[in-house]
Amino acid sequence: MSILTVVFVIYIAIIFSLGICSYFYTKNLNDYMLGGRSLSGPIAALGAGASDMSSWLLLALPGAVMLHGLNQIWLPLGLALGAYLNWQFVAKRLRIYTEVAKDSITIPAYFENRFHDKTGFIRLLTAIVILIFFTFYTASGFVAGGLLFSSTFGISYAAGLGLTAAIILIYTCIGGFLAISWIDFFQGCLMFLALILVPVVVLYHIGSINTALTDVAQQSPVYLDAFKGTSIIGVLSLFAWGLGYFGQPHILVRFMATKTARSIPQAQFICMTWMCIALLGAVFTGLFGLAYFSSKGLSNPETIFIVLSNTFFNPWIAGVLLAAVLSATMSTASAQLLASSSAVVEDFYHKFFRPKASTTELLFSSRIVVFLIAIVALLLAANPKSSILNLVGYAWAGLGASFGPVVLLSLFWRRMNLAGAFAGIITGALTVLIWPHLKFLGGVFELYELLPGFVFAVVSIVTVSLLAKPATVLMSKEYEHVAKLSQS
Questions:
Q1: Interatomic CA distance for residues 299 and 288, integer angstroms
Q2: pTM of the model
Q3: How far is CA 171 from its chain centroid?
Q4: Separation CA 126–CA 351 (nearest Å)
Q5: What's the whole-number mean pLDDT along residues 69-86?
Q6: Does 161 have pLDDT greater than 90?
Q7: What is the mean pLDDT of residues 177-194?
Q8: N or C end of the chain, less CB within 10 A?
């Protein structure tokens, strides 16, 4: 336990050092929220990956594979496909369009400037949706951190929760977006190493892949069949998670913050390589864990990564591997806190109440808002039995359905207008709120709410845009300008 404590202290010291360094590069709100659009390809790539893959990658996914077998493979496949399409079609164009649209530094600001909204209502609506769903998302990260500290060091869940929140709050408030990006790069490397090392070492102790598969098949052949124990509705629901990428502000902002659009292909290659290997590592961790514990059993499958780390590695290396779990938790929660803060300060406070506020005032306000949102998230996470997966799934669906269709069509459909954007956001958000209450009807209503929410939002955007007035001449010229820049 003392060695684990030393490793965690060293890890946290590194995190704080990066946060302090980034503080001296943060001079204004643009720096705090978007890092001054200065991210290199590798930093943007691992930042997007680490902030996307929360603790579910090291805990929930291996646990699901260990519990149900390879029929859980559809979720990582859907995520990998969604991430690839997001990088391939959205990243470069969004980077260019947000700069053309009055150098927008947040997604709400981009919507306002893209559709030339003079009322500010689209910005307000977007900020409210971000704040609601991201608060739940942040709470899920706090729950995971609280469970990790309580199970690793034997402290209470409440103490673990407070410690997780304190660490994230300190470096997020100090360094802002740059701190998060640099720390996410470090944490992404740590997660990558852990998800390669653990399954490889476990396989070495088992003997071979054939031996592992044989051990799994002896328990039940169903574990090795990706189509058993599921249904078309189930597969579609898992695949639908990939649609969420198009509407996640904490991921989209990484595209916006890259130094130039020309660095996007490099970042895409790095991120997708990292992601595919990490997802495979998580799946094999669950599968090899199932083989290793075939005759021993494991009370809680979601602890398989932690158990394997403690079983096969000395305390120093095990401490590093467990720090990777904390990395996954913190990288996501910090990005969500900052995105929520930007929605309140830049898109609400600055826009409607203090348009002439000084840089110092806005920076101070942003740090205060980060603290207040964290308090609300802590209250939501106070119950140690809170379902991490349910919190993540709810927030992911809400953001993906509300913003994904609007982002995609705003980038690739000239005819889209402000009325269509309003319709898309409202339809997507309401569908996610209502759909889960209809699942008792069975059938198609058992679908993950992100899929119907996304489809209904697209239909509403197209319908309302065609019924409303066409885009203005200036909006069309901006669209054409972005299209030409995107081809270069």
A1: 16
A2: 0.85
A3: 18
A4: 13
A5: 92
A6: no
A7: 79
A8: C
Among all chains, which residue has been given the structure tokens 């859980």? 72
> What is the CATH topology of the domain spanning 2-386?
Sodium/glucose cotransporter (1.20.1730)
- Span 60-80, mean pLDDT? 89
Q: What is the DSSP track for 301-316?
A: GGGHHHHHHHHHS-HH
Report the alpha-carbon distance of residue 472 to residue 134 in Å, rounded.
Answer: 33
Q: Tell the burial category of 485 from Cβ atoms under 10 Å away from its Cβ (0-12, 13-18, 19+).
A: middle
Q: What is the pLDDT of residue 295?
A: 46
The predicted structure's pLDDT at residue 302: 76
pLDDT tens readout for residues 408-429: 999 999 999 999 999 999 999 9
- The residue written with tokens 């990998």 in the block is 80
Which residues partner with 291 through β-bridges?
Answer: none
483 residue type, one letter: A
Beta-bridge mates of residue 39 = 258
Amino acid at 221: P
| CB-based contact 152:4 (threshold 8 Å) | yes
Question: How many whole angstroms separate alpha carbon 175 and alpha carbon 425?
Answer: 31
Instruction: Estimate the share of the chain in helix, then strand, then coil, as percent rounded to the nearest 5.
Output: 85, 0, 15
> Greater confidence, 215 or 298?
215
- Going by C-alpha positions, the residue among 115, 121, 149 that lies closest to residue 12 is 149
Q: Which tokens in the block code for residue 12? A: 């946290």
Token duo for residue 91: 């990243």
Query: Distance (Å, rounded) from C-alpha 276 to C-alpha 81?
Result: 10
> Are the CB atoms for 195 and 58 separated by under 8 Å?
yes
pLDDT at 248 > cutoff 60: yes
Contact (CB, 8 A) for 416 and 461: yes
SS3 39: strand
β-sheet bridge partners, residue 258: 39
CA proximity to 410, closest of 397, 422, 426: 422
| Overall average pLDDT of the 330-340 stretch | 74
Average pLDDT over residues 288-305: 77
Domain ranges in the chain are 2-386
Average of per-residue pLDDT across 273-293? 91
Instruction: Read off the pLDDT of each residue in 57-72 and give the average, rounded to a whole number.
Output: 86
